[in-house]
Amino acid sequence: MDFFENQDEARKRTSRLLVFFIPAVAATVLVISFFIYLTVILGIFAHIIFSKGIYSPEYNACAWWRPGMFWAITVLTGSAVVLMSYMKSKGLARGGGDGIALMMGAKPVLPGTKNPDERKLMNVVEEMAIAAGVPVPSVYIMDIEDVINGFAAGFSPTDAVICVTQGCISHLSRDEIQGIVAHEFSHILNGDMLLNLRLIGLLHGILIITMTSKRIMLLLQRIGDPRAILIFFAGMCIWIFGSTGHFFANVIKCAMSRQREYLADASAVQFTRNPSGLANALKKIGGVVKGSYVNHLNSEIVSHLFFARGLKKPMFKSTATHPPLESRILRLDPQFDGTYPKLKPKGYMPTPLTEQYPGKKKAEEKAEEKKEEIPPVSELAQPEMPFVPVLEPGNLSAITPEDVVSSVGTLNPGLIAYASLLLAGIPQKLKDIAHEPFSARAMVYCLLLDKNDKTRKVQLESLKKHSPMNVWNEVERLIPVVDAVKDEHRLPLIDMALPALKLLSKMQYVNFRSNIKGLAEADKKISLFEYTLQCSIIRHLDPVFIKPDDMSIRYKTLEPLIIECFELLSVIAWKGSKADYANKAFKIAMSELMTGKEPTILPEEKCSLSILDRSLDKLSVAAPQIKKQVLKACTECVLADSEVTIAEAELLRAIADSLHCPVPPFVPGKTT
Fold it and tell me: Which single residue of 232, 350, 414, 579 has CA 20 to 30 Å from 640?
């Protein structure tokens, strides 16, 4: 299946999940409601007996079965379960992947870390993200866990995090870490993260009911009041049957998790073409004393997210969240004889956060104090980078719209090697700048400065007026450094800066967002790069600071979106082709979406980037297969003149980003 089919399948899995879960939850709610009802009825009869006597008229008139009361209790109980699940889901949505990592006691790895083990992990994650065309995820480490494990969490690539244990980075080689990271990227690209978080929300309602009843039992046990025996008995029954319901719901969760783990292993091998890396990581899990067992209070909640089994060995195979370790290894290494390497604990000392990043406020002061002299431009000279096409380094003439569309949401060794080469071509000085929240802001401002001296002067005056003085000073310091950046390194630098920019405060981000908009519009027109940069920043950081993305599908057919497609392709044709070729490019692209008609391209003067924004906002909530058609049409438009410029490649990346379709690096050059 391609990326778009995987997205469709992920939504179908969610629907199937609800089909299985709803009966299990409904049955559990009915049983729990019955015992609550029974407790209330027994309480009523006990009150009448003790106050009026067994022969009183009130006792004879009292009915054992009161359907109105039973259904009222059922509705209240069901509402409580649904409300708890809803609140948990909303809480997860607000916290995103970062919330899950923090819930597990993980500590963030700052992008600019100097710790060798942390740096090794960050380099692998950055390579994978740039190769896949997704924003670099935030990285966390569970630094008190010496076992080998990890997980990816989030609702979309925008808020995704990669979290690993201390044992993962101290016991594993780079190839083995790459295997685990590739496995987790499979979950990110295949849409598994959203399903996994919904599982947590759905199970939470039943779990809260059972835990509440258990607490009531413990409280009544401490009080020791014999009159509370009835409530204690009801609490025990609710806990027993609630736990049973939770058990069966958990069986469904585990069955789905095991299936996805096999797929993620296969995808990781496909991404890296190195089955030994992932196989050796799994073998080392068998060689660690505690294996992959994560000793944390919330391990049960997120057990299905882990790379390997995070809980103790289950009593029943049906309650195992992951396939057996040996079974996974044999699929990767058929020659495996069952012997695991014995590993000794290694001393990993995480860099204290106070040393890496002493807080947002202090960080800016620290950056101000640590100003270094601007190195000569000659020191920033970058090695020549070969043009590498989409998918595999080689022949640009092989690129077709079908290749571009089929590359969405995929990885391969060629792309990973290219991303590694691309990152190697960026001077370490620039990487350090992109990894620090304070200097990353200044770097983005510098990337937006116009080459024209007059326009640049206007931009700098505006920036000086609307930025804090220390940020302005950093901009002045970085201008010569950023001016030396090659065009093909600009977007990778933005991708690398995103995790650091997520560490800004909301107020800092609002000011930052306003400033980049002002810089882009200073000359009364927006270039394709300025649009692409704004698009990347806003699409990936607005959900973090302002409002989460709405990922729900509103359009399942193309008909309601034809006008938006018409406007989108008109803008691409005029912006990406020579004036005399724009109409031909537009017609070629529109033929992908509709036949039998020959629409006329929108006049050039009406093709503003604001129209592009409006069209993409509507297209972003279309069904995956509609997005596939639209993206293919956009690629047809870009390739129509048999040449891909850097600006066109960047624009296509921005469009794909807006449609939530991760496109791997699309390198400029001739296509025929």
Answer: 414
Question: Quick count: other Cβ atoms within 10 Å of Cβ 443?
Answer: 24
Indicate if 445 and 534 belong to the same structural domain.
yes
CB-based contact 253:268 (threshold 8 Å): no
Tell me the per-residue pLDDT of 388-406, one tens digit each, with 9 for 90 and over: 344 444 344 457 788 888 8
Active-site entry in 118, 145, 184, 592: 184
pTM: 0.78
Q: Is 184 a catalytic residue?
A: yes
Residue 205 has pLDDT above 50, yes or no: yes
> What is the DSSP secondary-structure string of 437-490?
HHHHHHHHHHHT--SSHHHHHHHHHHHHHHS-HHHHHHHHHHHHHHHT--GGGH
Tokens representing 425 are 């071509």
Identify each DSSP E strand in 112-225 by its residue range: 138-142, 150-153, 161-165
Tell me the residue range of the domain where 573 lies: 559-670
In the chain, the amino acid numbered 415 is L
- Do 536 and 578 fall into the same domain? no
Do residues 448 and 478 lie in contact, with contact meaning Cβ atoms separated by under 8 Å?
no
Token readout for 8 is 């469709």
For the stretch 114-161, pLDDT in tens is 898 999 999 999 999 988 888 899 999 998 888 899 999 988 888 889
CA distance 537 to 445: 12
Task: Clarify whether residues 609 and 642 are in a common domain.
Answer: yes
Q: 36, 73 in Cβ contact below 8 A?
A: yes
